[in-house]
């Protein structure tokens, strides 16, 4: 959404309400159930302009441990100081890139900042529940369904030669006792 900020810059308004739908970029492995509902305000208090936005959306993905479907709601907040073009130096903008929203040619573009905030804030790993035990690394059976019968630990393959020697020694001992 591109907001016309000229009324606020001229002093004709001290508040702008924001309410719109935004199609967000999809993070890897997740799907959103629709557009993000973005709600917020820009307030001007004696020349100090502040932007506050909240974007909320529903998602579905797979559990990072057991691959079960997971659905939920996600919300992110964005707060920035709004500055007119030319009031900040390039150095100030580079050092405080996440602190300012800059009005360019009398307009303020909100979409890129909120899309970026959604992607950066969305969890990299989502679990179906906090104590999800995951899958058996051998057979792939979900551990929450119970024991699958696979051995807990496999012998180190580098020591397999020693096992054959031990097995051979046990056979020799059994043959000499008979």
What about the largest sheet? 6 strands, mixed
Uncertain regions spanning at least 5 consecutive residues:
none
Global geometry: elongated
Number of domains: 2
Number of H/I helices:
4
Instruction: Please bin the fraction of helical residues.
Output: 10-25%
Oligomer: single chain
Question: Average pLDDT, to the nearest integer?
Answer: 86
Explained architecture:
The chain has 178 residues and is of the alpha+beta class. It has two domains: 2-121, no CATH class; 143-177, no CATH class. It has helices spanning 6-9, 90-95, 111-121, 160-177, and strands at residues 2-4, 15-22, 31-32, 36-45, 48-62, 69-84, 100-103, 107-109. Strands 2, 3, 4, 5, 6 and 7 form a six-stranded mixed beta sheet that branches. A two-stranded antiparallel ribbon has the order 1-8. It is elongated and about 105 Å long.
């Amino acid at each position: 959404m591109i907001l016309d900020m000229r009324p606020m810059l001229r002093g004709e308004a001290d508040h702008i309400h924001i309410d719109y739908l935004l199609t967000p970029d999809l993070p890897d492995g997740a799907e959103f159930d629709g557009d993000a509902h973005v709600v917020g305000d820009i307030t001007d208090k004696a020349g100090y302009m502040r932007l506050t936005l909240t974007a909320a959306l529903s998602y579905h993905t797979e559990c990072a441990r057991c691959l079960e479907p997971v659905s939920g709601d996600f919300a992110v907040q964005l707060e920035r100081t709004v500055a007119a073009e030319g009031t900040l130096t390039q150095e100030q903008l580079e050092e405080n890139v996440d602190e300012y929203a800059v009005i360019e040619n009398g307009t303020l573009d909100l979409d890129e900042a909120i899309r970026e905030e959604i992607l950066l804030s969305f969890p990299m790993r989502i679990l179906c529940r906090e104590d999800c035990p995951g899958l058996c690394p051998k057979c792939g059976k979900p551990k929450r369904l119970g024991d699958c019968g696979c051995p807990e630990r496999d012998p180190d393959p580098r020591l397999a030669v020693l096992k054959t020697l031990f097995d051979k020694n046990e056979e020799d001992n059994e043959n000499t006792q008979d």
